[in-house]
């Protein structure tokens, strides 16, 4: 992996994955919803990694605009080896109870965005017959422990991953989902039994990692993702993967 495009880098998981890829020496283009978010992110990047990163403000979600941006990014970086479609994890139950109609439109918008960006990135990769698309998600089973749960988006995204994987496999482009397990909801929370107790259902006295630690699980797909496609791997302690 030499070049990557990360969409929705403003999310906590997106930022963690971007910093991890920079540590691995990958050139990253990260997209943000607002210019201020891009500036805040750049301030967190170590000086020695500044040359590896470029930031953009995401265009309107229209097919022509998305295709134009991704083609331009691939040209600037000298290729596109990896596309990661992140987004901010939301609580779909709360959104549904608050406004069902707005929830339906938002779900449609998120899945349409996933389709357009992945389609454009896959088209660029297929021409070179190499590349990987990764869709990060959050395990739905964590909703009972205070984590946001997005079963509608997650199931829609998984169905899309399996479908796109079949279409791109002849071009040696792999498409996989990476599902994150539990992590510390509060930054630098004090470790202790009380912090672990809600997760005893998943493992005996489990460690509760930081989100930045979970982001290192991306390395599994960076190193070995070309050996599989259309799969969903859960990265976390005691949470079962579905392959």
Structural features:
243 residues, 7 strands, seven-stranded parallel beta sheet, 16% strand, alpha/beta
Q: How much helix, percentage-wise, in residues?
A: 40-55%
End-to-end distance, in Å? Answer: 23 Å
User: Over the alpha carbons, how many angstroms does the gyration radius reach?
Assistant: 18 Å
- Please tally the helical runs, counting DSSP H or I stretches of 4 or more residues: 9
- Low-confidence runs of at least 5 consecutive residues: none
Number of strand elements: 7
Mean pLDDT: 90
Strand order of the largest sheet: 3-2-1-4-5-6-7
The main pleated sheet reads as: 7 strands, parallel
Shape: globular
What is the topology?
Elements: E1 3-7, H1 12-23, E2 27-32, H2 35-44, E3 53-57, H3 63-77, E4 82-85, H4 92-98, H5 100-128, E5 131-138, H6 151-168, E6 173-180, H7 193-196, H8 211-215, H9 218-224, E7 232-235
Parallel strand pairs: 1-2, 1-4, 2-3, 4-5, 5-6, 6-7
Helix pairs in contact: 3-5, 4-5, 5-6
Describe, in plain words, how this protein is organized in 3D.
α3 packs across α5 (100-128) and α5 packs parallel to α6. The chain has helices spanning 12-23, 35-44, 63-77, 92-98, 100-128, 151-168, 193-196, 211-215, 218-224; strands at residues 3-7, 27-32, 53-57, 82-85, 131-138, 173-180, 232-235. It has 243 residues and is of the alpha/beta class. α2 links the parallel β2 (27-32) and β3. The chain has a seven-stranded parallel sheet, with helices on both faces. The model has no long low-confidence stretch (mean pLDDT 90). The protein is built from nine helices and seven strands. The longest helix has 29 residues, at 100-128.
